[in-house]
Design goal:
With about 140 residues, the chain is of the alpha/beta class. The protein has a domain of about 90 residues. The radius of gyration is 17 Å and the shape is globular.
Length: about 140
């Protein structure tokens, strides 16, 4: 992603992504998943499988490290969020909301303003289609 990835002398911060999903969506291939596993897995196991797929698709906390990605919430390897991180996150979280563990996707109700995305070098948003809007019979993003 970044021209400086894995270069400790580089002064350009890595491009980051921000995941905005409460994982209430259904994978597009849910019917196929159910058909394949109905005779192999009980309902509870199929539900767990579906949740795991959703978490992988939105690159849930701790998964960025596997893919070598940098996330705004800091779950790309390293230490737990510091107090300074928690303080700066107040800039993008809704008023009165504090995250002590760094997980932003569960706290954000909308895409933060561009100035804050730029501050964190967030270049990619990952979300699901539950927030999308249809305009004049065309599919469009809910936050344009």
């Amino acid at each position: 992603m970044s021209p400086c990835q894995n270069d400790p002398t580089c002064s350009v911060p890595p491009e980051r992504f921000l995941s905005l999903s409460d994982i209430f969506f259904d994978p597009g291939d849910q019917a196929e998943i159910d058909a394949i596993y109905v005779d192999q897995l009980p309902q509870a196991a199929r539900q767990d499988y579906t949740v795991a797929i959703k978490q992988k698709e939105i690159i849930a906390p701790n998964l960025p490290l596997i893919y070598g990605l940098a996330s705004v919430d800091g779950f790309d390897g390293g230490v737990l969020p510091l107090r300074s991180f928690t303080e700066v996150m107040k800039l993008i979280l809704p008023e009165g909301v504090v995250t002590t563990d760094g997980r932003l996707r569960e706290q954000l109700t909308a895409v933060p303003p561009a100035q804050w995305l730029d501050l964190f070098n967030a270049r990619y948003l990952i979300t699901d289609k539950t927030g999308d809007q249809w305009r004049e019979a065309m599919h469009g993003l809910g936050f344009s």
